[in-house]
Design a protein that fits this description.
The complex is a heterodimer of chains A (373) and B (651). A two-stranded antiparallel ribbon of chain A has the order 1-4. In chain A, strands 2-3 form a two-stranded antiparallel sheet. Chain A is globular, with a radius of gyration of 22 Å. Chain A has a single domain, classed as ABC transporter involved in vitamin B12 uptake, BtuC (Orthogonal Bundle). Chain A is 69% helix and 2% strand. With 373 residues, chain A is mainly alpha-helical. Chain B folds into three domains: 226 residues, 3-Layer(aba) Sandwich (Rossmann fold); 189 residues, ANL, N-terminal domain (Rossmann fold, 3-Layer(aba) Sandwich); 163 residues, ANL, C-terminal domain (GMP Synthetase, Chain A, domain 3), CATH 3.30.300. In chain B, β20 and β21 form a beta hairpin. Classes of the chains: A mainly alpha (373), B alpha/beta (651). The interface between A and B is medium-sized, with 20 and 34 residues.
Chain lengths: 373, 651
């Protein structure tokens, strides 16, 4: 139950289900929006790439959250669908002989994003089919199969060979264009990503409070009970895979705007794991959790990177005789991430969003510690 | 002593001897139509609105339906059930048709229902659902005047096919048919009414004897509401939550007398169990409740404060110090220094506004308590947190209210000054007498009682009191309850009991000491609070009876008693006490339905305990009966410990 101040009541379900039910929430949201818009002017330019990476992870982890957090379908192959999105978009831009006016008016990329969404969605549904029969660990295996089939096999061995350019498709600067805007610097990438994140979070939030969202949650909580209540679980699971794939496709299509070339190494299995890690850190079954998790992971990585680089530089200049140490600490970053997940699972199993919820409650319940008598 | 107050308030209506509640309803509905919400009921999570037009339409249909079923002038319609729009519609419908409304407390046992249905000569019995219908079916053979039983909640009613039963929907259908065949009948019925017609037959809770039925007229109800609002005006945009029993005059006064005159919105909670949460959602502007509700509020705050984290506790304690100090200055009518004002402002923002929010009192402009005595500690508490709590004094016989505090003139040991058009004087034996246009016309079928209560237009209250130097009325106690202490001083047991109830661990108490060597108390612990306390301290218990007799609990209660003892005269100090093995309960006739203690009855019932309190024994073996709500009687055996209050008291 969300907290509402005294004197806040609703005469219709429409009001009851509104996004912004109190002036306080409205103010909070507007403040957030202002911060998002003003961010490029608030932080050093080298940090902008950090923020759009966060946004990319949010977009990618959105589908993971949907499948794991809201529909209970554990997935470990989400990078495959992001890859499908990225490749669809890139190939549409590169290989389709678009009429000049469409290229000039910047329609190609937006169209390719939508197509990327649908292609990835269909690909995701294909690998979601086994979920009709298998659950839990077995589903993890089938989604992992999606990863292995898609990235190392289909993309690396076949798709990448198209056009005879070798392993990767290079994306010349100036190619990515939305309407009159060419996405060619960090500020533009950031705004573009922020726009997509807002759009997708809004879509996700709205789906979740619809019949479909409620059906997913029912399946997550107890699939047998859901089926007994008349939820067609196969259909709704496939819808979940479709929507999750769609978000993944958009994430993939967005990410090419930040890349110079598309290659299979951008979609390694590590990313599938990372995005699951993000929702575990952020909080399973929470939309804010995706944001918290992505921000946490990316910023921690950035800080670790800065730390490792700083130490390396210090060692190299002050004690060059033990310079070999620097090669040993280079992988601290990855191990620290592993450690973070372990600590989260032990000490904060409900993720950052739960901590946030507790923080809000601390003030909502002020000056007491619980509601009721 | 006569009244002082504003002669008029914004939106005041003119009350003539011709005006009736139904006529007022029609006027208001014409004024507001579909543009304003008359009432809301929370159903399936949202507050479903009923506009004034819809309100009138429903009342009209029910009125004509009742007429079609044979309701005639002066016939009684008895109603029982939770607060809900249908309840108010039927009550208004009964009045529109020229009938008289009678209300029963919903938790009345069979005997009480039978007595009142029979005594009031009710022709129609309007029940909420199955439970109330069952009560009616069980007693109808002994109430031959009863013609029809009307119900509106279909839950569990599918297999009831008794010819005496009819659903409210069917009644409304009858009304629609009659309306089609005789258009204008409703208006004719409404116009027929006169202000001096009896509209309500109100059974008083009766702390001493069988309930008496007070007859109240439209004029009584209207003038009372108007005079109250001359003191504290309400506005049409106000919200009010109706969740206390309609059978309590206070609820009638807010929902009917004031609500109809000013046209504020009445809100009905989803279920009685969630009423408190629903009240918080609405955040009413006005509320009137008996002290037990406010006592519950303070108890909640005290207990939750103790369970809060360290920072929150510290801030609470600091804030409350500021609150109590500034409230004290206000009571003493001293000017508040600027730095105290500043501190008060900060404390209000940081603490009080949040406490008010948690209690659902954020928007309260006037909060009234009445019906029983409330301890000064509660008053201090509410004014400390910035709730404008005021005392009301009145009786059913004067349509609810005659005396109230003014906003800038609150003294917590008084009940205030009379409302306009009301005179108060002190008669022989210090009895409080009052006179106003709202004084009732008499008791139903009890001329002897009427004669005792009404002399020359003065209402004899049976309460003892005096008027203090500021012109405030001080109500001492019921005349027959006043005790004479060993130093021949008069003392009010109610005062001590109210003080005791400020302790979160004490729910009820009975003080005995009339013509006795010292004062003793029988205490009912609060099961929730003491239970929680016991759990926190690792004390095991299985039942109320066991919990109440644990020595540590005795010590806990004793600390509260000692606190009270410190501030009362030597002879009034509580010297010995015992924890009762059960709570006082209206089903056992120990309390009235408004939870006032029936002192004589209780003293007689627990005579053994009282005798032991005045003897040297430390343990008393009891065997007694408890009546449950469904009428089952259970025998319990218990050993009652008797304990001296160590400090503060002297044997």
């Amino acid at each position: 139950m969300s907290y509402l101040p005294c004197g806040q009541y609703f005469e219709s379900y429409l009001d009851d289900q509104k996004w912004w039910r109190t002036p306080f929430i409205k103010a909070k949201m507007i403040f957030m929006l202002v911060v998002v818009l003003a961010l490029p002017y608030l932080v050093a330019s080298e940090w902008l790439s950090v923020f759009y990476t966060i946004n990319y992870y949010i977009l990618a982890a959105l589908g993971v959250q949907l499948l794991i957090g809201y529909c209970g379908q554990i997935t470990l192959g989400h990078a495959a669908f992001v890859a499908v999105g990225g490749y669809t978009s890139a190939m549409m831009i590169l290989f389709i002989p678009w009429p000049t006016f469409m290229v000039d008016s910047g329609l190609v990329y937006p169209i390719s994003i939508i197509c990327a969404g649908f292609t990835a969605a269909m690909w995701s549904v294909l690998f979601g089919l086994p979920s009709a029969r298998v659950k839990g660990f077995y589903l993890i295996m089938t989604t992992m199969a999606a990863q292995w089939i898609t990235v190392p096999l289909v993309i690396t061995q076949y798709v990448s060979q198209i056009g005879g350019r070798g392993q990767s498709f290079s994306l010349p600067p100036g190619l990515i264009k939305i309407g009159p805007w060419t996405i060619d610097d960090d500020v533009k990438i950031y705004y573009f990503s922020a726009f997509l994140v807002l759009l997708c979070l809004l879509a996700m939030g709205n789906i979740l409070r619809s019949k479909i969202g409620r059906a997913w949650i029912a399946i997550r909580d107890n699939d047998i009970a859901a089926e007994t209540m008349g939820v067609n679980i196969v259909v709704y699971k496939l819808i979940a895979f479709f929507v999750a794939g769609f978000f993944a496709g958009i994430a993939g299509a967005f990410w090419i705007s930040a890349l110079f070339f598309v290659s299979p190494e951008h979609y390694e299995w590590f990313y599938s794991l990372l995005w699951v890690g993000i929702i575990l850190i952020g909080g399973v079954g929470s939309i804010q959790g995706i944001v918290f998790g992505s921000a946490f992971v990316v910023i921690i990585f950035k800080l670790l990177e800065m730390g490792v680089l700083g130490i390396s530089e210090f060692v190299m200049t002050s004690y060059p005789e033990i310079g070999w140490v620097t090669t040993k600490i280079i992988f601290f970053k990855e191990s620290a991430f592993g450690l973070a997940i372990i600590f989260f699972l032990i000490y904060e199993p409900n993720g950052l969003s739960y901590r946030y919820w507790q923080l809000k409650n601390y003030f909502n319940l002020w000056p007491f510690s619980y509601t009721g008598k | 002593m006569s009244a002082a107050g504003d002669p008029g308030f914004k939106g005041e209506i003119e009350i003539t001897k011709d005006l009736t509640l139904p006529k007022l309803l029609v006027q208001q509905c014409e004024k507001y139509g579909d543009s304003k919400v008359a009432m809301r009921e929370k159903e399936f999570g949202i507050w479903c609105p009923v506009t004034w037009k819809k309100y009138l339409d429903n009342v009209k249909e029910i009125t004509l339906g009742l007429v079609a079923l044979g309701l005639e002038d002066g016939d009684k319609v008895i109603m029982i059930g939770d607060n809900r729009p249908e309840a108010l519609w039927t009550e208004m419908a009964a009045m529109c048709a020229g009938g008289v409304g009678v209300w029963l407390f919903q938790d009345c046992l069979m005997d009480e229902v039978k007595y009142i249905v029979d005594h009031s000569d009710s022709k129609f019995y309007v029940a909420e659902g199955q439970e109330e219908v069952d009560k009616a079916l069980a007693i109808r053979d002994s109430c031959p005047k009863l013609k029809k039983i009307i119900w509106d909640d279909p839950k569990g009613m599918r297999h009831y096919d008794d010819p005496m039963l009819i659903s409210l929907d069917e009644v409304m259908e009858l009304g629609r048919k009659l309306s089609a065949s005789e258009p204008g009948l409703f208006e004719k019925l409404v116009n027929k009414g006169k202000g001096d017609d009896v509209c309500l037959l109100f059974y008083t809770s009766g702390t001493t004897s069988l309930p008496k039925g007070a007859l109240l007229t439209h004029y009584n109800m209207l003038t009372m509401g108007q005079n109250l609002m001359r003191v504290d005006p309400c506005t049409p945009s106000d919200d009010f939550v109706s969740y206390l029993p309609f059978a309590w005059i206070g609820e009638q006064m807010m929902s009917i007398s004031c609500g109809l005159q000013v046209g504020y919105t009445i809100n009905f909670p989803e279920e009685p169990e969630v009423a408190q949460a629903n009240v918080r959602e609405i955040g009413p502007h006005v509320m009137f409740a008996p002290p037990r509700l406010y006592e519950q509020f303070t108890r909640t705050v005290q207990v939750k404060h103790l369970d809060a984290s360290w920072t929150k506790r510290v801030i609470y304690r600091l804030g409350m110090k500021v609150g109590y100090h500034t409230a004290e200055l206000k009571f003493e009518k001293k000017s508040t220094p600027i730095y105290w004002k500043l501190l008060r402002f900060i404390a209000d923002k940081v603490l009080f506004s949040k406490i008010r929010d948690q209690l659902g009192l954020s928007r309260v402009r006037h909060a009234y308590t009445g019906g029983a005595a409330m301890g000064p500690d509660h008053f201090r508490f509410f004014h400390a947190i910035g709730v404008n709590l005021k005392q009301i004094y009145g009786q059913t016989e004067i349509a609810g209210i005659s005396v109230v505090h003014r906003d800038d003139d609150i003294k917590f040991d008084t009940v205030g000054t009379p409302i306009p058009e009301t005179q108060i004087k002190i008669g022989d034996d210090d009895e409080i007498l009052s006179k106003s246009p709202s004084v009732f016309v008499g008791y139903y079928k009890m001329p002897g009682e009427t004669e005792k209560a009404l002399k020359d237009g003065w209402l004899y209250s049976g309460d003892t009191g005096f008027i203090d130097e500021d012109g405030h009325l001080v109500v001492f106690d019921r005349s027959k309850d006043i005790m004479i202490l060993r130093d021949k001083r008069k003392f009010s047991p109610q005062f001590l009991e109210a003080r005791l109830k400020f302790s979160p661990y004490i729910k009820d108490a009975l003080i005995v000491g009339h013509n006795r060597p010292y004062v003793v108390a029988i205490v009912c612990i609060d099961y929730n609070t003491v239970g929680k306390w016991a759990e926190d301290h690792g004390i095991n218990y299985t039942s109320y009876t066991e919990l109440s007799q644990i020595p540590q609990v005795y010590d806990l209660v004793m600390r509260s008693l000692s606190d009270v003892n410190r501030s009362v005269p030597e002879a009034a100090k509580i010297t010995r006490f015992a924890n009762l093995y059960k709570e006082f309960d209206a089903d056992d006739d120990e309390l009235t339905r408004t939870r006032k203690i029936r002192r004589a009855f209780v003293e007689n019932r627990y005579k053994d305990i009282i005798d032991s309190l005045y003897s040297d024994t430390d343990l008393l073996h009891m065997e007694t009966n408890i009546t449950y709500e469904d009428g089952r009687v259970i025998e319990i055996k218990a050993d009652i410990r008797i304990q001296d209050v160590k400090e503060g008291g002297k044997k």
